[in-house]
Design a protein that fits this description.
Length: 310
């Protein structure tokens, strides 16, 4: 794909150089030049960075690699037998080049895999690791890295046009719209990866464990928001907003107690609380669906799989 982008960039640059009356006097060509440059440069830089990162990272332990490749192959993930499996902080697909497995989970999983009689905790670790692997496998198989940069170019091309035409008044709204569009698509990718993982866990029982884990994460997040709003601070904005949201939630809880006899008022208060929690969740992690949404997706998949089993 990077070769195609290079060809597009060269073509657009030639048009701009030799046919200025054709190239930069039409909004369509400006849009094509902008989207191609943004997508091509971003994709190329991302690929190079991922390759450099890949060489520096340690390979996953042998038994973890065998376990992971078996699962990926069973789910028809491309390059299941050859995609590099590296260790790092957290799970991710880096530049569409390799799948990163959380280092602590990998070492713990390696111990589980060599035991003849796994404990209940071992089983839970395997389930959550399988879910994470399927999630990242979906991103890798779907080419989400490449698609993200294509969308980046398409959405930020109007910003390029505004800059070329020195239209500063439109630049800020265009940036806001482009960022919003990209974020919306990123969240869509994450929902689809979650859904794929839930639908492809090797048993319904494992899906129930996974759902229970997501529910526990939601409850911990909401409890921290109320009792210790700075405990999970992730960025400056969160550091400012979380205490404000926490104070508002305490106020709504008090109102709910005072309005215990008024069911309609309690429903309105519950709706306001859910909105505040969603906002806090979005600030904490704007790229992924909120915890309660993840629980809902898991339940949808659970209902579907149970219906298919009947």
């Amino acid at each position: 794909m990077i070769k195609n982008y290079v060809r597009y960039i060269v073509l657009m640059m030639l048009l701009t150089t030799y046919k200025p009356s054709f190239a930069m006097h039409t909004k369509l060509v400006q849009y094509l030049v902008g989207s191609t440059l943004i997508s091509g440069v971003g994709y190329g830089v991302g690929k190079v960075a991922a390759k450099c990162d890949e060489y520096k990272r340690e390979d996953a332990p042998e038994n973890v690699q065998k376990w992971a490749r078996k699962i990926l192959a069973e789910k028809d993930i491309k390059n299941a037998d050859s995609v590099p499996l590296k260790l790092g902080d957290g799970w991710r697909v880096a530049g569409g080049s390799f799948i990163q497995i959380d280092k602590e989970e990998a070492y713990s999983l390696e111990k589980c895999l060599v035991k003849k009689w796994p404990t209940q905790n071992d089983s839970k670790e395997k389930v959550l690791a399988e879910e994470s692997l399927l999630h990242e496998g979906k991103h890798y198989n779907n080419g989400d890295f490449s698609k993200g940069y294509i969308l980046l170019g398409l959405t930020y091309a109007p910003v390029f046009q505004a800059l070329v035409n020195s239209n500063k008044r439109l630049t800020i709204p265009m940036v806001a719209f482009s960022a919003g569009s990209l974020l919306t698509y990123t969240r869509y990718q994450e929902v689809e990866a979650d859904r794929f993982a839930f639908m492809n866990l090797s048993s319904i029982e494992k899906l129930e464990i996974s759902k229970a884990n997501r529910l526990r994460q939601a409850e911990i997040f909401e409890n921290n928001l109320l009792t210790n709003p700075l405990r999970s601070k992730n960025n400056r904005l969160e550091n400012i907003v979380r205490p404000m949201l926490s104070k508002k939630l305490h106020s709504l809880n008090q109102k709910a107690l005072e309005s215990s006899h008024d069911q309609n008022q309690k429903k309105r208060i519950d709706t306001q609380k859910k909105r505040l929690i969603k906002l806090a969740d979005f600030i904490f992690d704007p790229k992924h669906p909120d915890f309660r949404r993840q629980v809902a997706i898991a339940q949808e998949c659970l209902d579907k799989r149970k219906a298919e089993r009947k």
